[in-house]
Amino acid sequence: MIRKCFKPDEIDLSRSTRRRVFTASLVIVITGIAVLLMADLLWRTGFTAWKVVFLLLFVVLFANIAFGFAQALLGFYYRMKGGDFCRITRSIDWDTEEDLPLASTAIVMPICNEEVGRVFEGIRSVYDSLKATGLIEPFEFFVLSDSGEVNKWIEEEATWVAMGKQLDAQGKLFYRKRRVNINRKSGNLSDFCRRWGRRYRYMIVLDADSIMSGESLVKMVQMMERNPGVGIIQTVPRLVNGRTLFARMQQFSSRLYGPLFQMGLNYWQQGEGNYWGHNAIIRLAPFIEHCALPDLPGNEPFGGKILSHDYVEAALMRKGGWSVWLAYDLEGSYEEGPPNLIEFAKRDRRWSQGNLQHSWLLAASGLKLVSRVHLFLGALAYVVSPLWLLFLMATTAMVYNFESMGLSFIVTDSSMEMVRMDAAAQSAFLLGMTLFLLFFPKILCLLDLVRKPGEVARFGGWFRLLCSVVLENLASIFIAPVLMLFHSKFVLFTIFGKGVRWTAQKRGGEDGVHWREACLTHLGHTMTGLLWGTAAYWISPVFFYWMSPVLLGMVFSIPLSYLLGKFGLGEKARCSGFFMTPEESDRPEELSSLEKNLEKRQASLRLRLRPELADDYGLMQAVLDPYVNAVHVSLIREKGGSRIDLNNPLQILRERLLSKGPDALSSKEKRSLLMDADSMIWLHNHLWSRPSRMLSQWWQSAISHYNSLSVAPQTALFH
After folding, report:
1. DSSP three-state, residue 155
2. How far is Cα 700 from Cα 336, in angstroms, rounded to an integer?
3. Predicted pLDDT of residue 351
4. pLDDT digits (tens, 9 = 90+) for 65-123
5. Considering only CA atoms, which of 601, 632, 713, 714 is closest in space to residue 121?
6. Which pairing describes strands 202-205 and 280-283: parallel, antiparallel, or unpaired?
C-alpha cells in the first residue's frame, strides 16, 4: 500500500481558514466566559473608573492565556491522533523515498565577538555529521564575522585556517570579516546574499551556538526541493548543554512542554508560519528579491534600522507569494540558552525593542493577515508584562479605595440568571479557571508521556520527572514577577526613546552570577517588592497574602538569580537526575562530538599568557607570528595589492606601536593598523629586524614569551 504524502503547495486554503477560525473561536469562547463572569462580579459591587481599567486589562491578559491554552489543547488532540497530517515533514515518505535530490546550499553562521572555540568546534561537529551522511558535496560553510574585539578577530582568522586543514575543508569552509558592520546581523546576511547568494539555491542560517545534525540538514534541502513553492522552513531548536540550574530548567521545560504547543502552533499557521532567525533553511532567489529590509520612519528605538529582522523577512516572503513552514517534528536541531536570569533579560532587552518596532508594520500594505498576527503577537509578548503590572496596580488601587472608606461590601444579585453562585464562589471560580488554563497544558504534556514509557525513562523516570516539574513550576512562579518588571522597564525605555546596544550574548563562564552583579541588577526589584508588600499589608493583610506569590519573587530576586545562575547547583541537579532531557539521557552524536572537541581544546591550551600581554594578545600574534601575520594580511589585502609608502599617515602609528607599545594607541588606532595590509607587513618585518633597544619593553617581553613556547604559537593560542 502506497503511503499518501502531504502536498504543501496544493494546500486547501479553506482548510487553513477553518483551522484559524476554530482556534480563534476557542479563544473567544474561553475568554468570553471569563470576561462575562468578571464583568458580572464587578457589577455586583458597583462600577468605578478603576474597575473599568481593571476589566479592560483583564480581557487582554486572559485572552493571552486562553490562546496558549488553545494551542496546547489542539496539540494534545493531534498527538493523540498520531500527529497532524498537514505538516511539512509529511511531504516526503522517508521510508520509501531514499534517492531524493539535493542542491547547492550555503550554511552560514553570522558571529560577533563570540567565544571562538565554541563557534568553530560547533562547525566541526556539524561538518563531521554532514560528512558522515555521504552527501556533503552540495554544502559549503561560511563564517561571517562582525567581531570588533581585536583578540576575537585575530583568533577567528587563525582558527579558521587551522580548522580548514584539520577537516580537509579547503574550498568548503570560508571566512569573511566585514570592514563596516552595517545593520548588525541582518546586514551581515544581506552582504553575503549580495556577494555570493546567486551561487546557491538555499541558505541555512545558524547562530553561534547552533548545532544541526547532517541528517536534518539533508532533509531540509530535500523538503525544499520537493516543494518548490516553499520559501522558508523553520525548525524548532532544542535547548541543550545547560550547565546552570536556570539553563537546565529552561531546557527541561521547553523539551517537555514544547512539542504540544509547537504542534498547536503549526495547526493554525500552516504555510504562513514565522522565521526565528536561525536553524532554518531559506530559498535564496525569492529571499534576495523580496526580503530587503526597509528603514522604518523616524529614529531608533522605534524607527531606523529594523532590529528583529526575522519576523519581517517571513512576512515579506509571504507577501511575495512563498510559503513559510514550521518543521516542528524534525529531529537534530539544537541551540544553547542563556546561562542565567540576567543574561536572559539582556537578550529580551534586544528582542523587546525589535518586536516593538514591528508596530510600524502592522498596517503596511501588501502583508498577509497571518503575517500581521505574527507581528502583533511578537510585540504583545513584551507588552503583556506592563499590562500585567498595570493590572496589579489597578487591583491595589481598587482594594485601597474600598478599604479607605471603611465600608462593607453590599453585594447585589448577579446580572445573569444562569449564574447561581454568590460573589465569593464566583471569585473562586474565576481564580480556578485562570489556574486551570495556566497549568492544565503542563498536565496534558505529562499525560502525553503516559503513552511513551521509553520517553519517560529519558526524562529520568517518573519520580525525577514529577519532582522536576514541581520544582520548575515553583521557580517559574517566583521568576515571573521579576521578568514582568524587566520587560516593563524595557518597554518603557523603548517608548521614551532609549535604544539598545547590541552586544554578544554571554553563553557561559566558570563562575556564574556574582553577588555584586545580582545585587546591582535586582536591587530595584527587591525594593519594589518590599515597598509594595508594606503598602499591601497596610491596606489589608488579606490582600497582602493574596499578593504574596508576586511579592516574594521580587523580594528574593537577588538570591534567586544568584543561586539559579551557579554552575555547581546545575551540576548537582544533573548528577541527581533532575531536569533531565532526552538529549542528555541519549546523547546525540553531534553534541557528544562537540563536548569532546571542546574538552580537547581546553586541554591543549597549555599556554598561559603573561598578564601584561593578555589585553593585546591578538595584535601581538598578528604582528609577531609569521603564520598569523600571513593569514591576516591575505584576508585584508585588497585585490591587486599595494606597495609600501613611507609617507602613509599610518606610519606615525606604526612607529609609535613598536617604540612605545600597544598602550600608546587607542582601540580605533589599533584597528586602523590591523585593517591595513601594508602596515601589518611593515610591522612584522621591522619587529623582527630591529634591535631590542629600539623596541618597547612590551614587545621585548612578547618576543621572549614567543620564543619560549615549546609548540607552534598559533596552535597553543588558538586550539
Report:
1. helix
2. 42
3. 86
4. 999 999 999 999 999 888 888 999 998 888 776 678 899 999 999 999 899 889 999 99
5. 601
6. antiparallel
User: For residues 65 and 14, is the Cβ–Cβ distance under 8 A?
Assistant: no
Task: Please state whether the peptide bond connecting residue 301 to the residue before it is cis, i.e. omega within 30 degrees of 0.
Answer: yes
Residue 254's pLDDT is what? 94
Maximum distance among all Cα pairs of the chain, rounded to whole angstroms: 100
Distance CA 26, CA 419 (A): 21
Does residue 238 sit in helix, strand or coil? strand
**Residue 282: strand pairing partners:** 203, 232
Calculate the dihedral angle through the C-alpha atoms of 38, 41, 47, 53, rounding to the nearest 10 degrees: -20
Distance of CA 409 to the CA centre of its chain: 49
- Parts of the chain with a pLDDT under 50: 1-2, 509, 639-642, 710-719
Question: Quick one: cell of 331?
Answer: 529531529
Quick check: 699 and 661 in contact, CB under 8 A? yes
CB 391: neighbour CB atoms within 10 A? 18
Question: What is d(CA 308, CA 277) in angstroms, rounded to the nearest whole number?
Answer: 9
- Beta-bridge partner residues of 325: 233
6's grid cell: 502531504
pLDDT of residue 598: 87
Write down the pLDDT at residue 718.
45
Sign of CA dihedral 164, 667, 610, 595: negative
* Residue corresponding to grid cell 532554518: 280
Domains, the chain, in order of start with CATH, read 88-340 (3.90.550.10), 614-718 (no CATH)
Distances, alpha carbon 382 to alpha carbons 250, 313, 353, 574, in Å = 18, 20, 9, 32
Is residue 8 within 8 A of residue 325, CB to CB? The reply is yes
pTM above 0.70, yes or no: yes
Q: Give the torsion sign (CA, 321, 302, 338, 507).
A: positive
What's the pLDDT at 239?
Answer: 94
137, exposed or middle or buried, with CB in 10 Å at 0-12, 13-18, 19+? exposed
Angle at 437 between CA 431 and CA 442, to 5 degrees: 125
Residue 708's φ and ψ, nearest 5 degrees, are -85, -10
Q: Which among 501, 505, 504, 503 is positioned nearest to 301, based on CA atoms?
A: 501
The predicted-structure confidence for 290-317, as pLDDT tens digits, reads as follows 988 887 777 776 777 888 888 999 999 9
Give the sheet arrangement for strand 173-177, strand by strand: 173-177, 139-145, 105-111, 202-205, 280-283, 230-235, 323-327
Nearest 5°: phi and psi at 625?
Answer: -85, 125
Count of residues making up the chain: 719
pLDDT of residue 640: 41
Give the Cα separation of 489 and 455 in Å (integer): 40
pLDDT value at position 684?
A: 93
Q: What local confidence, expressed as pLDDT, does residue 408 receive? A: 57
Mark 571-606 as b/e (b = at least 16 C-beta within 10 Å): eebbeebbbbbbbbeeebebbebbeebbeebeeeee
Instruction: Write the burial class of residue 164 (CB in 10 Å: 0-12 exposed, 13-18 middle, 19+ buried).
Output: middle
Residue 186 and residue 293 in contact, taking contact as beta carbons nearer than 8 Å? yes
Neighbour tally for 666: CB within 10 Å: 10
How far is 147 from 268, CA to CA, in rounded Å? 40
The single-letter DSSP state of residue 502 is -
- Using a 10 angstrom Cβ sphere, with 0-12 exposed, 13-18 middle and 19 or more buried, the burial of residue 18 is exposed
Provide the CB-side half-sphere exposure for 337 (13 A, CA). Answer: 25
* Structure-block grid coordinates of residue 290: 523580496
Spatial CB neighbours of 301, under 8 Å, sequence gap ≥ 6: 353, 356, 357, 493, 494, 497, 498, 499, 500
Q: What angle do CA 49, 50, 54 make, to 5 degrees?
A: 120
Q: How many CB atoms lie within 10 A of CB 487?
A: 23
Element holding 235 (H helix, E strand): strand 230-235
Cell, residue 438: 495556566
